[in-house]
Design a protein that fits this description.
Bound molecules: NADP nicotinamide-adenine-dinucleotide phosphate
Strand content: 5-15%
Number of strands: 7
Distance between the termini: 28 Å
Helix content: 40-55%
Number of domains: 1
Number of helices: 8
Largest sheet: 7 strands, parallel
């Protein structure tokens, strides 16, 4: 299986991004960890270095395109990158709060805008040397779920973007990987009060992510027992049936999957 030499990961201060940094470092990859909370990145870098890895922290807000481009370009200038992973993301936990439109645009700015900027910076940085650009999208992008309209839309949009870009990049040395996890135990899902089928440990999810990136598959979904039935049902269920099924769930108080 492929081993990455040097990876830049956004969303590295917490949850899945943090666990992926640890998984990569354990496999010998040099890690450039990016997120806004510099204190948490510092803790991570110290932990990785104590285990013998090479790591650095770059405080970064992915909603600033210039900052993203600068972070990726300077990490690559320091020694060629062969993996860029757009892991930064936010969920919606209070759909009833006022000004939903503004909150939706803010979420799209991170989950879609930040991911697109990171993807394009990664493609540019590795255009000659080659490499892998991955995104943590979600199985939630498969269909619209009540309580998570903005989140589902952001993940569907980035998956569709990646699908198109994969075709455009055919024959070039950069591979794009769309990672679509189900429910993973992280600070993002901790507030959820509805059933989360097949909830996974973050270490398991990180391992499957890194294995999928190394295999260079165009789409990586896990867990399979949630991924494939969801994709089959989502593909064949007409919109009216989908709406009735999910409306019943929402009325029972199970609407509002902020994640998955
Ligand atoms: N947990 C799940 O069940 C699940 C399932 C499918 C997909 N995902 C996706 O996996 C990714 C990681 O989620 P998680 O569950 O690990 O959540 P998490 O623990 O809340 O981590 C989110 C990460 O994103 C970073 N982030 C948020 N806004 C940012 C911004 N503007 N600029 C830079 N970094 C930002 C956070 O860092 P700072 O706050 O320090 O900036 C944090 O490191 C997300 O894209 C999420 O949508 C998660």
């Amino acid at each position: 299986m492929k081993t990455f030499r040097k990876a830049l990961v956004t969303g590295a201060s917490s949850g899945l991004g943090r666990a992926i940094c640890k998984e990569l470092a354990a496999r010998g990859t040099e890690v450039v960890a990016c997120a806004r909370r510099a204190d948490l990145l510092g803790d991570l870098v110290r932990e990785l270095e104590a285990a013998g890895a090479t790591a650095s922290a770059v405080p970064l807000d992915v909603t600033s395109p210039d900052a993203v481009r600068e972070a990726v370009a300077s990490a690559a200038a320091d020694g060629p990158l062969d993996l860029v992973l757009a892991g930064a993301g936010v969920a919606e936990h209070s759909v009833e709060a006022p000004d939903r439109a503004t909150r939706t645009l803010r979420l799209l700015d991170v989950n879609l805008g930040g991911a697109v900027t990171t993807v394009e910076a990664g493609i540019d940085a590795m255009a000659q040397s080659g490499g892998t650009v991955g995104v943590l999208s979600s199985l939630a992008g498969t269909r619209g779920l009540p309580g998570a309209a903005a989140y589902c839309a952001s993940k569907a949009a980035i998956s569709t973007y990646l699908e198109a870009r994969q075709i455009e990049l055919a024959g070039r040395p950069v591979r794009l990987v769309d990672v679509q996890p189900g429910f993973v135990k992280t600070p993002m899902t901790a507030p959820n009060r509805f059933p989360m089928p097949f909830l996974m440990d973050v270490e398991d999810a990180a391992r499957r992510t890194v294995e999928g990136l190394a295999a260079g598959r165009s789409v990586v979904t896990y867990p399979r027992r949630l991924g494939w039935p969801l994709r089959v049902v989502a593909r064949v269920a007409p919109r009216g049936l989908w709406r009735r099924l999910l409306a019943q769930e929402a009325q029972r108080g199970n609407g509002g999957p902020a994640e998955g």
